[in-house]
Amino acid sequence: MQVPDVEDLSLVLTLHRTQSLGAAARELLVSQPAASQRLSRLERRCGTVLFARSPLGTTATPAGAEMVRQAEHILGHLHGVFAAVRSSASARTLRVGTFAGISGYAFPALDELVGDAVRLSTVVHHGNEMIDLVAEGSMDAALIGIAEQVQLPPHVVAHRLGTDELVAFVASGVQPPRRGSLPFLDRVVTYAPYDNSGPLIAERIAALGGTPRHAATAPVALEISRRRDGIAIVPSSAARMSGRPGDRVMASRVDLPVRLSVIARGELDPVLAAALPALAKALGLRRRTT
Questions:
Q1: Residue 288 falls inside a structural domain
Q2: Would 151 be classed as within a structural domain?
């Protein structure tokens, strides 16, 4: 099976950045005909055109854009090989990822819990990308909210960390939700889940009289609600961790459970597994009792 080599991937990235075959060749210290021949061979092996040439420059086709993404991913790993090897020689490294919305709460707690037993290397990424990284072995484990909402690769196992709940966050001085069947009537309600439940949350907010507004992360939703005197629907862990004096955390009536899991290739690292009950407690999650 043929695979692209480092020179192929370097050419793809350089050509994408410079949008000029001549400039890419000069940067890579090869002749332009040699660069052109390498690109042609790569396109033949891929069975499609990767870059469109025009008088205005060379631009990636949709297939080329995917090749660029793959090249960035692969070369990024290669560039970190020596540093990772040197680091592992002095202490065992545990590579753990999570998503942006909870990283500011989870990583400091986990770092304190594992102590000096391992060297914790943390990465913030999207859930689907972390599943891929765990599956390929580039990441030891990842804390995600979508493990029970997607099909995991056969060798990736989800270990339930705990269950959170969605709450209504009301900043100090902000009018709380109304009583009755339409608590969010004529209010903009900013929301940010930990998982893929965003469309359902938006439907529930609208049914309760509100105008839903999606935010990129829970911390962003909380800050928007502060600045605009609004209400935020976020997981309770985010509301509690970001709370200030006078803030209120209330029942939201958007009754969707938020299930957080740690995924790994098979069994969890023993140090990480030992830390999970305390991590769940630090985040205020409910653990299974059976």
A1: no
A2: yes
